Amino acid sequence: MAQIKPFRALRYQLEKAGRIEELTCPPYDIISETQRQAYLERNPYNVIRLELPRGDSPYEEAGKTLEEWLQEGILKQDMEEGLYLYEQEFLSQADHGDKKSLKGLICRVRVEDFAAGVVLPHEETLSKAKTDRFNLMKATNCNFSQIYSLYQDEGHITRSRIENLTKTCAPRYEFSDGLVTHRLWVVNDPVAVSALCEDFAGRKLYIADGHHRYETAINYRNWCRENDFYNPGSEYVMMMLADMADEGLVVFPTHRLVRDLPGFHGPELLKACEAEFDVLPCGDLPEAQSRLSSLYEEGRHAFALYGGSAWNLLALRDPAVMDSVLPEKSRASRLLDVSVLHSLILERCLGIDKENMANQRNLTYTRSAAEAVASVDSGESNCCFLLNPTRVSEIGAVAANGEKMPQKSTYFYPKLITGLVMNLLTEQ
């Protein structure tokens, strides 16, 4: 099962680099070029310079920058091996809602092929993103951000250990980015480290966020083996591990936008949907969101469809229809909202096949309902579908069956911050 181990993290030397809140950033794949420039203007040593390099030879530039920062003492490895405890404190709805907290464990995890059934994915990936991350890893031999994974622990043994450890000393870092308060503790005590590592001996890990980076870790490990490149750290990858049952886990939906579809006609789409769905007219966005949430609480599979002039809820009448639509899939996969939407509406009613979805020709994604509506109102999109969030239990069930959801099925909030700790793969 999962093998985890401590490591000597690469961390910023604040007396040379600056304040930690100026050196960290969100994951690279949600940062625009304007935001990237803003991070570098705030502090030229921001980790975005390594994680999302630009220029004619961006990957080589990242490798050169990393080497320079190591030589200058901007970055330095910890003297002792350790595990790193990470907490996020935040509001459940980004800018309002209940206050929540999630604590996890940052460590090295042995890279396993998916066939081994130890590290389990839940989403499909895109080739372009994997190529980008592979080129960066080859040029830098480093993990700058951690993969976000979940584990099952009915007795919450590990979570209790983490809680006890974080109560005994002050965090090494503590700061807010405006929405989330981040805290990091360093654990070097051999007894505590050993106990935490032993907890995972019988566990599987479920990737929550970072599928592209994990597949890249597999490719990088294989590349090192095939080319006799001695890089002992390539057998492991940096992860943040959280209890799947933690009340602090929050998943947001990712909405679908349909665009550039020849011959699109809203009334015809609604007529086609009537075959399997109850079509329920709504007045506006707030009403659509409220009623969609109510259907979610009732356990019904539903979406809010906006076509530019009207809102309609589409509520699946009989879930049994999915048995014949996706007979090769498990019940967990068949009854995902995204499976229902993609199979019965996007493919059957609109003719958008799986390859088209993967290449995002007629289908794009956003987490913002307002952005989805604006895209339709501007004429950029033909229509949009607002979804309810995927339940964490559904994610675990799909992964446990060795299956994957469509791309962009989940959005764990908040994203893990990048730059608190890094993992040099040239180290044992």
From TrEMBL:
InterPro entries: UCP033563. Pfam families: DUF1015 (PF06245). This is DUF1015 domain-containing protein. It comes from Neglectibacter timonensis. The lineage of its organism: Bacteria, Bacillati, Bacillota, Clostridia, Eubacteriales.
